[in-house]
Amino acid sequence: MKLHKMKWAVVAGLFAMPFMTNAADNTGFEPIKPDALADYRLSYDEMFSIANSHVLPHRIFYYPSVGENAEWFDAVKKGNLDKVKAMVEAGQSLEVKDTKSGRGQTALGWAAFIGYEDIVKYLIDKGADLYATDDADVKNALKSAALGNSAATAKVIYAALKEKQDGKVDVNYNTFDSDGESLLMIAASNNRVDMVNYLLSIGAKIDIVSEKLQQNALTYACSRGHQQVADILIKNGAVNFKTGKPAC
């Protein structure tokens, strides 16, 4: 079986899982095939690298949305800025949540995660809530971005938060995270190389430890085989808190 088909088989299998079904709406939606992805801005491989059965499966976005706001969320997930603009001008609410085919993300949450910098800019300019939550432990759009790998998108959100918070944005907060994870830990655990570099550039601390999970950014990267991320962290002074050594 070719790699592309193997990848799709993995993704398609997810639709049998409870969190991907929508029995309450009785929609019976089916996974779209790779040849039906032409209207998505990103390539299949790019989307697969952001979310798949092994990386944030609850955030897979490349299948048809369902529910009363399905058209809106499809426009966002596909990266269709023109349609997003048209729907907003026609009165579409920015703060509706994707509870039927997502985890309660708003449009900004989805765009931040996927990495559509232009859509993120547009939604922020239109007043989208930077602090919109979802039911998978996201408390603001910067965390949504940190779960993805678009440093450019994170930079836009960071600047917007700084403007809103008088120049003060704590990228190291982990108090409100249910597992005590910092943004850097989240990026490192998901092998987001660009995001790790960006977070370090704006002051992310490398030594924060999740007491609940007994992990820090370096141990996460090491335990999951993300050697490039581990090397970046070590170069920036990271120490494996379990061994006291700057190594996996």
In short:
ANK repeats lie at residues 103-135, 179-211. The protein folds into two domains: 3-167, Alpha Horseshoe (Serine Threonine Protein Phosphatase 5, Tetratricopeptide repeat); 170-248, Serine Threonine Protein Phosphatase 5, Tetratricopeptide repeat, CATH 1.25.40.20.
Summary keywords:
248 residues; mainly alpha; Serine Threonine Protein Phosphatase 5, Tetratricopeptide repeat; ubiquitin-protein transferase activity
User: Strand share of the residues?
Assistant: under 5%
Count of helix runs: 12
Query: Alpha-carbon distance between the termini?
Result: 34 Å
Strands of the biggest beta sheet: in what spatial order? 1-2
Largest sheet data: 2 strands, antiparallel
SSE order: HHHHHHHHHHEEHH
Per DSSP E runs of 2 or more residues, the count of β-strands stands at: 2
- In the CATH hierarchy, the third-tier topology of the largest domain is known as Serine Threonine Protein Phosphatase 5, Tetratricopeptide repeat
Oligomer: single chain
CATH homology superfamily name of the largest domain: Ankyrin repeat-containing domain
CATH class of the largest domain: Mainly Alpha
Unreliable spans: 1-30
What average pLDDT do the residues reach? 89
Helix content estimate: 40-55%
Radius of gyration over C-alpha positions, nearest whole angstrom: 18 Å
Tell me the domain tally. 2
Proper CATH architecture of the largest domain: Alpha Horseshoe
In terms of structural class, how would the helical and strand content be classed?
mainly alpha
GO molecular function, one term: ubiquitin-protein transferase activity
Keywords: ANK repeat, Repeat, Signal
ANK repeats: 103-135, 179-211
GO biological process, one term: protein K6-linked ubiquitination
